[in-house]
Amino acid sequence: MLAALLDNVALQIMLVGALVGIASSLVGTFLVLRGTSMLSDAIGHSIVFGIVIVWLLTHQQSGPLQILGAALTGVLTVFLTELLVSTRRVKKDAAIGLVFPVLFSIGVLLLNLYARDVHIDTHTVLLGEIGFVWLDTVTLGDYRIPRSLLSMGAMTLLNAAFVVLFFKELKLATFDEALARALGLAPGVLFYGLLLLTSGTAVAAFDAVGAVLFVAFVIVPPSTAYLLTDRLWLMFLYGIAVSIASSVSGYALAVAWDVSIGGMMAVMTGVFLMLAFLAGPRYGLVAQLLRRRGQRRHNEIRTLAVHLYNHEGGPEQGVENVIRALREHLRWDAAKAGRVVQRSSDRRLIVREGEALRLTPQGREMAREILDPSGRSSA
Amino acid sequence: MNVVELLSDYTIQNVVAGAALLGLVSGVLGSFAVLRQQSLLGDTMSHAALPGVCLGFIIAGTREIGSILLGALATGALAALVMLLLTRMSRLKTDAGLGITLSVFFAMGVVLLTHIQGMNNASQGGLDAFLFGQAAATLRSDLWIMGGITAVALALVAALWKEFKLVSFDPEFATSLGLPVAWLEVLLTVMVALAVVVGLQMVGVVLMAAMIIAPAVAARQWSRRLEDMVLLAALIGVAGGVFGALISALSRGLATGPLIILSVSGVVLVSLTLAPERGFLWEAIRRVRARRRLRYQQVLTTLYRLAVHHADPVYRSEQGMLDTYHGQRTRAVLRQLMRRGLAEWCDTPPDEPGPPRRWVLTPAGIAEAERVLAALGREDL
């Protein structure tokens, strides 16, 4: 099976794409829930600095120590940002936007200066080259395994282990930080651990998708999941599902249209998000609109029932309880009045007798309940 | 190359003028964005300009700056609207909305970019330079367009100055005055896209965020009024832009965008540290001074209280006892008191045990201690 995988370039690319998505959404879920998604943008950009420095020092990029070293730049970014915020001179959003461009700029200038020594050009920095991951391999036993596959696989396992081991703590720190601190869980340390893993994932994914597309893999699948469910563990499952689906469909479309594979995978995460945004079962736009329309219709029926009930048996009944009166007294136009009458009689709340409208016993019961919910005056 | 030669070089003139225009427009518009806490919206809009650049190229069929900038303006503004739609119409928060729009629009740009490269259009060359900017390729005709956009943006700010000011600081009050607050906010947001468009050529889509934020943050350190802040931000933007562009021109091969960003960020660092009132340095000095003053008063009143308790105005206090009482060394403070003539370091009479020299308040020291205690409002000792 492994041999089959290693012969199949398409499968390798899709697998790397899916692993980037899975590893990222494991940590991204907590970033999205905590409202700190834009830290992934800052981390994605500033690791460029770390990667260049580590490359210049060790002339290697994908070893565990190299990944850790470059990942520390990401943590440094967050630390500097929080330092700036703590001085109360700069708001959080401005602080993020001040720190990462500086590190990113230094990284790019170093690339300019040492262009001959560094294997990455500024183009790859932003876009990655997921289509070429199968070219860069390491030999393990009898197999030649793509380097990206190894490092992304390791990061995925690491992130999964972190989430599983600290699930309870992370959950508490995310939803009730004060309680977590009171229980002695050190949510700050936990959060920095999460950010270190995010940076590590960014470094490992750098060759494949670059600095900016990484942001899509971190934020978009968890956000899609957030639109679909309220359960944390389901969020992970949906996030992973979106990552795999984006990777496969993105690869297929990219090959069909001859465009960037990583870019198309990231676009597909956006397509799935749009689907969830429009058609999600509870929080989707369509579901919201349907729910609102149902409520409006229900209110119209109730209004009609109360109107008929108020004038029932009185001297004005002949004038009030006719369709024509709805137009003047409830300010409904003819079409709307007709629709509401139709729906009410479908539910057997009223009956039409020529022009006149009469409540059925159920309709009368409904109106009585609306006007006197506790049932006191009828006693 | 000396300065005169440098400034008479056609390319360098263009680069410097372009950088100045960028600094001007992003300083002014960035001030509003930073005050309204929309700093990162600039980041999102600039990344989202990439698909517009590509669409502009595809529609025009050539690298024509007008249609490229128009495309960038359109998708940048569209991204801001999508971001608003996502956060207003669903449970996603602002940060997620920003990140989603930024990354997905950028990804669309990447896809379009590779699509164009696949078209084998000879005039596509250097389209991906919009990622980091390509200041050196700025033409005189580009400058006219950038200048025109800057003029439009500045004219809008001047015409709607009072309205923008009110919307930035007190939107509720603006609403109560009957101003179209929602429209003004949309206008301010879309105008950031104008700054982004001017910056495309100079610093590229990726670093534009800092160009919007940095001059405004630096200017805020030195000013308390919006008028001063906007003027200063424009000035800092222009200075940083020109400086970065000149360095880049002098050192062939270093990208202009990052150098401009680093120069402006340098101004931010200096401003955060050194600006009067709001600078870290002054705050640190103020804090040290306050702490020293407090310590000084504490030791002085301790000596005074000891004298009162022993009903002896020239009561001799031991150094070791004072150290223990304050939980730290007090010798430096006592020496300071001595220099000011408030305390004396005098000999212990030979018949008393203990250290040979002790501390005694002078009459001036007693008066000063009483003044400090009175100022604190403490009559009980």
TrEMBL record, chain A:
Keyword Cell membrane (UniProt): yes
Predominant location category: membrane
UniProt record similarity statement: Belongs to the ABC-3 integral membrane protein family.
TM spans (from-to): 12-32, 39-58, 64-85, 94-115, 149-167, 179-197, 203-220, 232-257, 263-285
Cellular localisation: Cell membrane
InterPro entries with a match to the protein in the record: ABC_BtuC-like (IPR037294), ABC_TroCD (IPR001626)
Keywords for the protein's UniProt record, in alphabetical order: Cell membrane, Membrane, Transmembrane, Transmembrane helix, Transport
Name the UniProt record assigns to this protein: Metal ABC transporter permease
Pfam families attached to this UniProt entry: ABC-3
Recorded topology in the membrane: Multi-pass membrane protein
SUPFAM superfamilies the UniProt entry points to: ABC transporter involved in vitamin B12 uptake, BtuC
From TrEMBL, chain B:
The protein's name in its UniProt record: Metal ABC transporter permease
Keyword line: Cell membrane, Membrane, Transmembrane, Transmembrane helix, Transport
Chief site of localization: membrane
Residue spans crossing the bilayer: 12-35, 40-59, 65-86, 98-116, 143-161, 173-194, 200-218, 230-250, 256-275
InterPro entries for the chain: ABC_BtuC-like, ABC_TroCD
Bilayer topology annotation: Multi-pass membrane protein
Originating organism: Halomonas gemina
Family: Belongs to the ABC-3 integral membrane protein family.
Subcellular location: Cell membrane
